[in-house]
Amino acid sequence: DEGGAITTGMVPGVKGKSAMVAVHEKSRHMYRCVASRSVKGHGGLNPSSDSAISRLTAFIQEVEKSHIYRSSFAPEVKETFVAHAPYMSFPYNMLFGNLGVFGPVVKPIMQRIPQAKAMLSTSISFTTIFGGTHEDPQIQAKEAETTMFLRCVREDDLLAGLEKIKAID
């Protein structure tokens, strides 16, 4: 794909140098998500639970709590660890050399490490949010928007997850 680097300490249990070759590039996608309401109005006179900003933040919370993308060892990721297993110290060599058996033990641990978690599933983050104006903060925004950034492991996984996201109201 696009090469790699000679690293030290990147793979757990490997004391020496490792050649990290990028054989699997995660794709990046950005989506603009918009919530709107038919009219804008004074913040003190309109119910805030139906405001564009309230609706958008409810959408963001629902996406984040739904865990749309499940973690798994993609073949490329699994092979990376299997190839390194002979060079790992115990118990890493046993765990990563036998992911078919120990994957259910290793995966929850990896999910607690941000860099490792990114290897196991598509990640979603909301990077921006806009709504209303500074000029007149009493008036509820007619429209609010956020940018949803996805970094995906596999395209088919991305598409299936997007369908779930679209179904969130």
TrEMBL record:
Pfam families found in the cross-reference section: M20_dimer (PF07687)
Keywords of this entry: Carboxypeptidase, Hydrolase, Metal-binding, Protease, Zinc
Ranges of residues in domain Peptidase M20 dimerisation: 37-167
Cross-referenced InterPro entries: Pept_M20A, Peptidase_M20_dimer
Gene Ontology molecular-function annotations: carboxypeptidase activity; metal ion binding
Record GO biological process: proteolysis
Keyword Zinc: yes
Keyword Transferase: no
Family that this chain belongs to: Belongs to the peptidase M20A family.
Protein name per the record: Carboxypeptidase PM20D1
Taxonomic path: unclassified sequences, metagenomes, organismal metagenomes
